[in-house]
Amino acid sequence: MRISILHLFFRSCENYVIFIPLITLYKAPILLFKGWQRLVQDLVGREGPFLETVCVPFAGLLIVLWPIAVLLATIGGVLSSIGFGVYASVIAYQIWDNFFKGCEHVGKELLVKGAITTADLDAWQQSKNNKIVTVGIPAYVFLDCFLRSIKDGFAGFLMSDNVKLTSLNRPEGRVFDWLFDPMSIMKAQLKSLQLEESEELYLFKFCLYGGDTTRMEAWDNGGAPPREDIRRAQLEGIGRRLQGFCLTLSRLPTSRRRFIQVVKEIAQGSNQRSYSFGAAAV
Predict the structure, then answer these.
(1) Contacts of residue 265, Cβ cutoff 8 Å, sequence gap at least 6
(2) Could you read off the pLDDT of 141-178 as tens digits, one per residue?
(3) CA–CA gap between residue 76 and residue 280 (Å, rounded)
(4) What are the phi and psi torsion angles at 217 (to 5°)?
């Protein structure tokens, strides 16, 4: 997977390289005065480093040199933000890029199978409100990731291109907490159901079409709903939660910009395939 160094640099500047130094600079005066206050209190009360008389000169030197210690700690915090920022940006970019590549691959595959049509792509390009494209394809990608991870017995998420996401290597931040926790819950729910192959295929179809019975009946992928009503309700409940998750994800500005390119690539692949068939017929 190719990763733009310049892109990663700016991503790191937007995240850790800006926020960690700001927090460090904000904390530096507090650390300075709090440290001085504590040392002076120990000096007056003959506590801590001032407990023994022989240690008083060294403790007094510590009071004088305390600003230097704070300065070195501040510099260390600023410099460490570069490494943390680049690492987090690499992981985030890999995950984000892998997701949209998966949407592109799945979209082309579904177009070949007849699950989606060029009319769906045209409707999305005109109004950006076609849920089969906006929500269905991403939900299909996430579901495929969940089931792949479950079948391989992987604790985290096994994405395409051998990208692995776990609680240990995932980027930190509120946005990633918001993404990772619901994904973990839905994966655990799927794992507990121990789905059969026909149920998995039915769930794929349900997530793609959002429960649209007309479209679900029109595409035969071999999936069949569970016979038990309770089990079917559980399965469709997970599908609806995944759809809601992808709907919220689609409203992110970055997601919208990237998805425009994804739909263009899917449509372009369809046009190239039609041209090839036409040339072969001639």
Answers:
(1) 104, 107, 108
(2) 999 999 999 999 988 898 877 778 877 767 666 667 77
(3) 65
(4) -75, -30
Cα(180)–Cα(145) distance, rounded to whole angstroms?
13
CA 57, CA 35: separation in Å to the nearest integer? 17
Residues 6+ apart with CB under 8 A from 117: 111
**Half-sphere exposure for 56 (CA within 13 Å, toward CB):** 8
Identity of the amino acid at 267: A
Please name the amino acid found at residue 26. Y
> Closest Cα to residue 221, out of 203, 239, 243?
203
Distance from C-alpha of 132 to C-alpha of 123, rounded to nearest angstrom: 10
35-56 tens-digit pLDDT: 778 777 777 766 666 666 666 6
Q: In angstroms, what CA-CA distances link 260 with 17, 110, 126?
A: 29, 18, 11
Euclidean distance between CA atoms 16 and 9, whole angstroms: 11
Three-class secondary structure of residue 157 per DSSP: strand
| 159 within 8 A of 101, measured Cβ to Cβ | no
In whole angstroms, give the CA distance from residue 275 to residue 280: 9
Residue 264 CA to residue 262 CA, distance in Å, equals: 5
User: Cβ contacts of residue 226 below 8 Å, gap of 6+?
Assistant: 199, 202, 232, 235
| Residue position matching structure tokens 């990731």 | 145
